[in-house]
Design a protein that fits this description.
mainly alpha
Length: 57
Amino acid sequence: MSEQHEEHPEIAAAMAQLEDLDQRPVDDHAEVLAAVHERLHATLDEHRTGEHPTGDH
């Protein structure tokens, strides 16, 4: 896990989805990038409002 994301496991998990992107077919890239974008967006919203929509916290 990247040192810069250790404090934020949600971000680390989202970024981990990109680690093997170069091994996936190019046709899958848009879907993976969209999923990562959505996850990061949800994480930012969660931290702005103090809510945890996943129920994990």
